[in-house]
Prior knowledge:
The chain folds into two domains: about 15-230, no CATH class; about 240-385, Trna Endonuclease, Chain: A, domain 1 (3-Layer(aba) Sandwich). The relative contact order is 0.12. It is α+β, with helices and mostly antiparallel strands. α3 (about 70-85) crosses α9. It contains 14 helices and eleven strands. A six-stranded antiparallel beta sheet has the order 1-2-3-4-6-5. It has helices spanning about 15-25, 35-45, 70-85, 90, 135-145, 150-155, 180-185, 190-205, 215-230, 240, 265-285, 320-340, 360-365, 380-385, and strands spanning about 95-100, 110-115, 115-125, 130-135, 160, 170-175, 290-295, 305, 310-315, 345-350, 370-375.
Amino acid sequence: MTTESVPIGLWSADDVEELTGILAARRSRLWQHAQPAELAAWVFADPQPAPLDPSPAAFDGDWADGLDEPQRAAWAFAGWVARMAVPEAAPTAGTHWLLSRVSGGHASLLRLTVGVLETLGVYESGEEVWLRVAAAPIGLAMDAGTADLEEWVRRGIDVGEDRTKTFAEDKLLFTCPDIDTALWLLRQPPVMAAARMLNAWVAAGPFPFESRYRPEVAGRAWRAAEALISDAVPAGTGGERGFDREYAGSAAPVDLPAQRSFDADAYRAGVNEHDRLCRALIDHLSAEGIRAGAGLHDVLVDLAWRDADGRQFMSVVGGNEVEQLRLGLGQVLEYRHRLATRGVEATPVLVVSRCSDQAWFDICAENQVVLVQGEGLADWTTGLRSAP
């Protein structure tokens, strides 16, 4: 399991710390494979699928020859979810999770069980997908304006409280009309974080179903997911605009969850400062006739834009000086790498409220990162135009 840097926007180091404490309170065989802090960081990290090798089971190459397209899509989707949203999925198959194929009715059902809870069901006909997720990341994203419930409803996604007893008050049930809609939903960062969070909780608990584990089912779906992963052309609309979507803001929620163990006022101040800097950069670029927006080729950059010469830029924005310089530099280098693997060359920009230590300008320059500070708005044009 890799623990990629936690996004600076909606999630914070405090979220990771809080979840670490929750997971650490559970005695689990899962800690043979990952520590609570690693698992908590993975929940909020930029999601990447578990690699093909090692596979949880041997693969029988001709098993899918008799499947039609909807069936192939269902198996690929089930494997993709397992590889994206189950912690330490390869070594824990059969001891912390399983995939099962249940026949009956008009179509067979592929079902993912993690710990004691069924967290995913997808019909081989492709006509319906249901998904259980943790409620907290969804609620926080909606409060912050980064999740659009109305858009989900327009796409035919039903959102409701789940009535199963495990974490009853802390989870939601999504029902999607088809696999494409379910894929779209899970590619929303708060939803993937919510799916990972719930699976982390239950994977750290008991697993009474080892006798029901069929390695060939897990192995087939694991390999079938390769088609979905290899065909995952970036869905963003970066292209000529230079960004995926308009910036929607990130205002701090009025009511933070009661269980949060950090300074709520400091959290709100940080979110508001992040939003102020984003809007200041957008306004600065707009004055020069440049539109900026959020995201780039499905990489979750805070802002992205093309300048008058057609150069692509992407930015990470932070508030607190020392913490965000450290986290922000790591994150912007990560995003540059992820964009490069998609064939996108972008100049990284790190924006902070202030920087009083000249060493950071040198460190960023050595890594070909443009560092600008909110207190020096007049210098932004010079800094951006001098970018390598």
